[in-house]
Task: structure prediction
Amino acid sequence: MKKVGILGGTFDPPHYGHLLIANEVLSALQLDEIWFMPNHEPPHKKKSEYIKNEDRLQMLEHAIQGNEAFKIETIELHRQGPSYTVDTMKMINAEYSGHQFFFIIGADMIEYLPKWHEIDELVNLVQFVGVDRPNYSHQTEYPVLYVEVPALDVSSSMIRERMKTGKTVRYLLPDPVIQFIEERHLYGT
Result:
């Protein structure tokens, strides 16, 4: 049975924090692959209205290049309306019946689990894996494996703000992603 971690997010833009989390979970749980799953419309926040899905997907492709264990799953990009994880996992489990899935979430989402859509059904479809995030607790009544990840306090919103104000983002995201952003004049560059 193939063991696959799923890291969902807007990846707006994808950065070294995402890659670090994916790599640490891959290693700690001895998974076969990590699938990066960009959201179309996450139910808990609004994605940047000016960044097209195609651009986010291309940035993600640039970010993961060179790591054979990192793949992209686009199932949520093809759906309309809010992307509920329970619906996504039903579809993925049906399509990949020989796989065991581990859904990676940050400590901010661990605290939010009681509010997830159909959480009681979802915990039967996927194993949650929690990773630390500064200023959040990882205590929950739901079954969550915990993986320690070195602290890297970086976020996509912080990167967007730095780019908008002309600050450097070097060493916060891969150079091919920075180059793509600059070529496309994204985030005010």
About this structure: The domain at 2-153 is CATH 3.40.50.620 (Rossmann fold). The chain has a mean pLDDT of 90. The chain has seven helices and six strands. Residues 89 and 134 are 28 Å apart (CA to CA).
